[in-house]
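In the design runs reported in the main text, the only information available to the sequence generator was the tokenized backbone. The following block is the verbatim input for one such run; it is reproduced so that readers can re-run the procedure and compare outputs position by position.
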């Protein structure tokens, strides 16, 4: 029996907490990938560092507190996402819909949190890049209104709610007579611990609460100072209702589809995150080498108070201490802490880290865009072109999934408004077919060359500088770009000079006339950046 018939008045806690088998399989992986993007502290909380068998608790705590990393996982995700949305995704919206006040309000605030429609998808695409997929529910507030005008007055319209895969806990598909998969059951877990269950005809909201018996037993056991096992909890229905959509208004935004488990997306950092963690551990090892090899402590036998022959003795340490040894047996009395072997191990670990960083960029097809310091040798034009083609192909696939999700949420938005049949044939969503990432360095080089050649047009040079800014920092905020544009328009601050003939004289010429007899004037062309 399909799960769409599971609605029960006497829902149990165990039944409510049931999850999909893929949820159980990938839950830990999703948590790890999210921690890898968040950074070092999140990874430590996840448990990437383990206490060594012979390591003291104090040393382990110090090692964890001093841990750091370079967060390549975040860099890769942000880099790919910035290029994915470097170009606009064209779409055709019928004029009547474009003029609709509720549609306009939805475009400006699609989730009742002040986030624009396109901005929302930029954020969700980033999350899909991290964990492989994101779910988007298209819901509408349940408020009693008599007509559309009241909805306008109350600012009521369908909205979007994003769910990470760790909050999409159960689902089920059925195949219709045409062979199409249809989502017939969905269970979501909100941040506020409410369970939302959807079918094509109905929705319910549940919560887990304690029974009165459980509350009394909890109080009793707490007073006695004993631990109470959590029993006597039950599921409580908070709300329910029917809907007219005939479908579950839920859209999957995949990063890339998995071949093995098709309901689960592929993360961009599935491999990178593990290299990231490995680099963190390598860096921790370097710090241990520095602490215990580059700066070791002198070993000496333990003495009783009073020293030898009852005389107090003090060990002198530091740069100014005189080191004494037996001239007849110098090797036997040489202090073993004088020699340090830190350089070799540190150099070896750094070489391993450099190799790992290079593999990160190679595995993600962004080596051609990475800094030249990570490249051990120059790449041929053919190799770079192949790398850019692979990257472009990946971005195109990701872009198609974004466009598919945009069309899906628009469909359900119009279904809530009873206007899908009216506009379905006129709506058009196009994806970007090429991202031309290989042209970035060429464009920048051409810009710099043109500024040297074209020197008599301040307007041209100003526009070139603004274009270069947007190419170099495509993810910059609009306010930041506006500030940079204003600074470019203002131009550089030139020094003020006294009137002609009043320039200060050189040494030995108090009247300002150099020994040659010619008045000394500044080269304004050089000062203003002109070409000689």
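Verbatim output:
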């Amino acid at each position: 029996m399909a799960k769409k018939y599971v609605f029960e008045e006497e829902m149990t806690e165990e039944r409510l907490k049931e999850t999909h088998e893929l949820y159980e399989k990938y839950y830990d992986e999703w948590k790890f990938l999210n921690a890898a993007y968040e950074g070092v502290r999140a990874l430590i909380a996840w448990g990437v560092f383990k206490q060594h068998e012979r390591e003291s608790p104090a040393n382990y705590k110090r090692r964890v507190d001093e841990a750091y990393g370079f967060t390549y996982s975040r860099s890769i995700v942000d880099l790919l996402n910035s290029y994915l949305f470097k170009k606009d995704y064209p779409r055709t919206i019928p004029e009547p819909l474009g003029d609709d006040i509720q549609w306009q309000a939805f475009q400006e605030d699609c989730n009742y949190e002040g986030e624009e429609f396109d901005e929302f998808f930029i954020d969700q695409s980033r999350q899909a890049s991290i964990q492989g997929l994101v779910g988007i529910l298209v819901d509408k507030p349940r408020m009693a209104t008599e007509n559309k005008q009241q909805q306008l007055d109350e600012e009521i319209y369908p909205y979007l709610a994003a769910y990470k895969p760790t909050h999409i806990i159960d689902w089920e598909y059925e195949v219709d007579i045409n062979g199409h998969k249809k989502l017939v059951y969905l269970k979501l877990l909100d941040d506020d611990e409410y369970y939302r269950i959807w079918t094509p005809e109905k929705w319910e909201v549940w919560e887990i609460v304690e029974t009165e018996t459980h509350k009394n037993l909890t109080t009793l056991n707490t007073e006695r100072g004993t631990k109470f096992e959590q029993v006597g909890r039950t599921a409580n229905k908070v709300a329910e209702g029917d809907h007219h959509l005939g479908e579950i208004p839920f859209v999957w935004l995949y990063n890339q589809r998995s071949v093995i488990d098709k309901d689960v997306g592929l993360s961009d950092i599935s491999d990178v995150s593990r290299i990231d963690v490995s680099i963190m551990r390598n860096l921790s090892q370097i710090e241990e080498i520095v602490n215990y090899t580059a700066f070791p402590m002198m070993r000496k036998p333990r003495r009783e108070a009073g020293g030898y022959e009852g005389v107090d003795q003090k060990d002198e340490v530091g740069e100014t201490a005189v080191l004494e040894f037996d001239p007849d047996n110098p090797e036997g009395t040489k202090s073993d802490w004088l020699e340090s072997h830190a350089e070799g191990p540190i150099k070896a670990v750094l070489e391993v880290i450099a190799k790992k960083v290079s593999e990160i960029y190679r595995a993600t097809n962004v080596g051609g865009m990475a800094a030249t310091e990570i490249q051990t040798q120059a790449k041929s034009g053919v190799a770079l072109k192949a790398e850019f083609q692979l990257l472009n192909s990946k971005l195109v696939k990701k872009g198609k999934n974004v466009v598919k999700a945009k069309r899906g949420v628009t469909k359900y938005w119009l279904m809530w408004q009873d206007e899908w049949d009216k506009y379905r044939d006129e709506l058009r969503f196009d994806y970007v077919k090429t991202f031309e990432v290989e042209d970035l360095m060429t464009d920048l080089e051409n810009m710099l060359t043109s500024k040297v050649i074209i020197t008599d047009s301040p307007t041209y040079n100003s526009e070139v500088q603004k274009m270069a800014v947007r190419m170099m920092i495509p993810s910059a905020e609009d306010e930041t770009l506006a500030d940079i544009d204003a600074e470019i328009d203002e131009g550089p601050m030139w020094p003020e000079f006294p009137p002609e003939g009043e320039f200060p004289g050189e040494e030995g010429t108090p009247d300002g006339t150099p020994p040659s007899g010619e008045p000394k004037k500044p080269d304004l062309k050089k000062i203003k950046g002109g070409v000689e």
